[in-house]
Amino acid sequence: MQNGTVTAERTTGRLLVSTPRLDDGIFHRSVVLILQHDDGGAQGVVLNKPLGADVDAVLPGWGEHITSPQTLFQGGPVQLDSALGLVTVSGLDEVPPGGQLLFGSVAIIDLDTPPLLVMPEVSGLRIFAGYAGWEAGQLEGELRRGSWFVVDSRAEDLLTDEPERLWERVLRRQRDELAFVAYFPSDPELN
Description:
The chain is α+β, with helices and mostly antiparallel strands. It has a single domain, classed as VC0467-like, CATH 3.40.1740.10. It is built from 6 helices and 10 strands. The protein has helices at residues 55-58, 115-118, 138-144, 155-158, 166-172, 178-181, and strands at 14-18, 31-38, 41-46, 50-53, 72-74, 78-88, 99-103, 106-109, 124-135, 148-152. The radius of gyration is 16 Å and the shape is globular. The two termini are 29 Å apart. Belongs to the UPF0301 (AlgH) family. This is UPF0301 protein BCF74_1023. Pfam families: DUF179 (PF02622).
């Protein structure tokens, strides 16, 4: 990794932080947690795009269990009609029924599992509508073009209670020139 960029390195469990070059749509100032990256492509969820939608309207019974802010998040532009539940767990022996550990303390859960079976085993829950997906080689191309910074994730990134500030916070905690990107104006013409 050099200056926050990666070429062919796998990014599972890491964050993609959009560069100022991605200036419109869901990926503008987005932070994406990569859930899986291999030769077939990559999938992740955008962590900082709350929709303000009531979770119970989409998935009855789950709303009261969501980590604050208690809303549905837009996980990406792919399959917006599907929902993906991510939780944090203490360890392998703490993965809830209907869950599968992805990496670190992050597990995916089957939202058809009753919430009362899942929630005693987890530290927090976030539900995403859709996900971000890349075909084989597509993400590597975007990384080479400088569309994304790749940085390490922290446990608190998934369940941040201030998603609107996550882009800046992730960049500011970097120990190199990437920290200065956090101060780049949202609209460069205002500079």
